[in-house]
Amino acid sequence: MYRFKFYYNDGTSGLSGGYAMRPTALYFEFDGLLDLDEFNNLSEKNMTTKKLLKLAVRAYKDFEPDFYRIEIINDKTNEIVDYIELKEVK
Question: What is the pTM of this model?
């Protein structure tokens, strides 16, 4: 199982509530966070972890406290699959 892990500016971290069987399937977490038309056009077939992380920054920016990093992690092993720093997103 995979999920997002957030790192906040106050030194804490937290995990997203949802899980996915594959990292690229985590885009389902964006239901209700992105414009409905944009969400409906997302597809795992065309998803990469980098694209997913950039979308995660946009989707969560108004719903999570100040974060500076998002990771995709394997929830059982805590292995980092990929990550993005907020400063990388323009």
Answer: 0.90
